[in-house]
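In response to reviewer comment 3 from the previous cycle, which asked for concrete evidence that the modeling workflow produces usable outputs, we include below a single protein chain processed end to end. The sequence was submitted unchanged, and the resulting structure tokens are shown without manual editing.
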Amino acid sequence: MRRFAFLISFALLSEGAAAAPVDRTSVARAFRDARQLCEGDGGKLWGVSLCGPIVVVDAGTREAVASGPDPDGLFTADGAIYRGTLPKAIGLANYSFSWKKESWTMLLAPLPDSRLERDRLMLHELWHHVQARLNFPQRDEGNAHLDQPMGRTWLRLEWRALDAALRSTGRSERIRRVEDALLFRDMRRSLFAAAAREEGALEMHEGLAEYTGTRLAASRRSDRVRLSRQGLLRVEQNDSYVRSFAYGSGPAWGLLLDQIDPNWTRQIRSTDDLGDRVRGALKLNTSSNLVGESSRRASRYAGESVVSEEMQRSNRRGRERRAFEQRFVLGAILILPLRQMQMQFDPRQVRPFHLGGNIYPSITVSDVWGRIEVRGGALISGDWKRMIVSAPENSSLNRTPDWKLELEKGWTIVKGDRAGDFTLRPPSP
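The workflow returned the following structure tokens.
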């Protein structure tokens, strides 16, 4: 796996949170609840405490409420909380970040109204705060196959079988449904050579985080199952699975493992596979007739309907790909170099670009040159070295209907290599 030579902070807006003033009373209550859940777990689930400093931020004003004193000494104590303004150098999103070498968790206001959903979100992000200590490195893989009709079809069928397994009350029925889920998982991965590796990277990152939030936010198994099933339904409705699928798969496979091997979290490694862990624990065999068996069992989960829906979607996406090619390859563009990127985006919207990289319908990126807010689409190259947006009419414009650019002092927009293209020029030495 390629290692990044520059700082890159993936700020995943898993619920697409909007800016809103920080309600100090509710945030103080959320901090207290998170601390109680962390202390109640006592490190039993993962072998380490998930507790750590949290800051909730209004993305519009950067008004911040923290659970403790900040490393820069900028915040003022206000009862059980600390409040102030978050420094501009820190990216805004639901994620874990390093603040003066101290690991912090950030959440954007407003927090979910439901306590169960709020606790799930907070514990999800708190897992990210310790994942490096648990030897689960953040790895980014393409998962472009999950934008292909057959990749999506067999993933959706896996989810439907997982949902049936979670709601099953008898052991034999649950095992039959797990066998179906594994069959569909194997079928998908037999069609795409890199699928197991690429999917595993995100399942061991966002999947385990979402499982942790689900597992610890709800004290009763029935509530955990309900949260997981809701998550499966929600993620299946996403327009893109490329960066969001693990939010559904992780909790479902994790809760099934809880029933089979309660100590699995203390044994799993970043190179393991959740489905294979279940397969091994139940001593299930891999089917020798993947195509025949998967096609036969797909009918249990409305497989023909799923295929039809995915083919229709593929036709729509074909037209969309041609439009993106016109904009980002054939049309005039502005190229922004990526050196120390921080990004905020909704993983439900990320779409692979057939000529390389990913399309982000909306994204905010900060780098050495400043900050850009995109609402009309951007392409980030597969090597993470360039961001491409539609070109402005001339070099004096820092905004178009698609994006707004705030440049650091000395940076300017200059003509690019092709007629009509632009790029950024750094300050003179």
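The CA atoms of residues 135 and 298 lie 37 Å apart. We consider this sufficient to address the reviewer's concern, and the full set will be provided in the supplementary archive.
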